[in-house]
């Protein structure tokens, strides 16, 4: 007998009772899959090669023992990886509520365009005359990024967010040194992304925290009190990791500039304000933009992302090489400093080649398909969806900053109010049994037992309602102290890990 619950069919044993074991370890069409080493053998191969006369060509490098790699037939290989892929969760299966990550659906149109000949099959060492279309695309994308941010210059070469942060700090250091005012400290609010202090330390700066106010924003007075002649920059994330817009951003920039320092903004959350707020109007000197968050490139999509950095007039001359320029209708890739206003005192180059063509192509396709008005709707819908989740769950989950007004693109909850002994981890594992990927856990650090949810603009109300119902049910179980939640997930391909043992004694290599 099947049970119906709000139009959904569930198995009786999923509600009460034990799920019977199977001989194979499979559960219906969810197939248990051993490691490839356990199902393959060195004597098997899916491809037959002719015997090769190796001779002495390899000398001492010739292999004198079996390599020990597993061999499988072609059907076995295909089935192995297909079965593994079915145990993975992806955006094509459901909402990916990871906060601070912007894991949204990306239109297939952009993927198709990125594979066009002339974009996908070019090489960075080709003569410039043979890649005019690609350079034009980079130049047009750069124009859009400058327009959307209100900034006069952009470096397209950084590969991702943290790489962009480093680019911005190196430009700041070069600008300070050029005026004979090298400084040693970077201030980072506790509401900033975790990469910010790491990047500042990597760039050679001492890092000091700036506390947050009770409403989750930068303490402006504490910041002003710490500014001094040793402070090179402030790295601020806006919207911040609490999912809140820094209302004092202009006042922060004014205070930092008055102290002779510069403002770096982490633009990873640009998805929340694109088309509505121009960071340049807020006094920001440098900001990276994660093209793989805001402008349509899947995370982990086959290599590095792209983190272009926009610059203010003060920093534009120090931007890195190379960059695209246009002269008499011909596009150039400038590899050395020029006498113009931009890049005149470049700090050098960060990469061998100029950026990520696939990321650029997807991003421009996304921008052109939406237009300026459409991008404003993107951010508006992202904020609307996050607030819908925040208000729909704030009666069952503690929402520490909900009393201060609406959030931006992320809804933040805490473990306050759960039954004794129950934690954020239990809620996350219970959500897996409901068929959803968990939200970001224990981040930001300023909130104990944080649960950070970012629904993005691509989720429908119906999809959000399903997620809300699942999270509500799990939260109610955690508040009631349901012991079954401590051993969740029960329906996933793998049971809950001993995370302490996994961290202290990881098994990273398979052994027979």
Question: How would you characterize the overall build of this protein?
Answer:
- There is one protein chain.
- The chain has about 500 residues and is of the alpha/beta class.
- Helices cover about 30% and strands about 10% of the residues.
- It contains 14 helices and 14 strands.
- The strands form 4 sheets. The protein has a 7-stranded mixed sheet with strand order 3-9-8-7-6-4-5, sandwiched between helices.
- The longest helix is centred in the C-terminal third of the chain and has 37 residues.
- It starts with a strand and ends in an 8-residue tail after the last helix.
Strand content: 5-15%
Query: What strand line-up does the widest sheet have?
Result: 3-9-8-7-6-4-5
Q: Using only CA atoms, what is the Rg? A: 26 Å
The computed structural class is alpha/beta
Number of strands: 14
Largest β-sheet summary: 7 strands, mixed
**Between the first and last Cα atoms, what is the distance in angstroms?**
44 Å
- Give the helices and strands as they follow along the chain: EEHHHHHEHEHEHEHEEHEEEHEHEEHH
Number of helices: 14
Looking at this protein, list some descriptive labels:
alpha/beta; 32% helix; 14 strands; 14 helices; seven-stranded mixed β-sheet; three-stranded antiparallel β-sheet; 512 residues; disordered N terminus
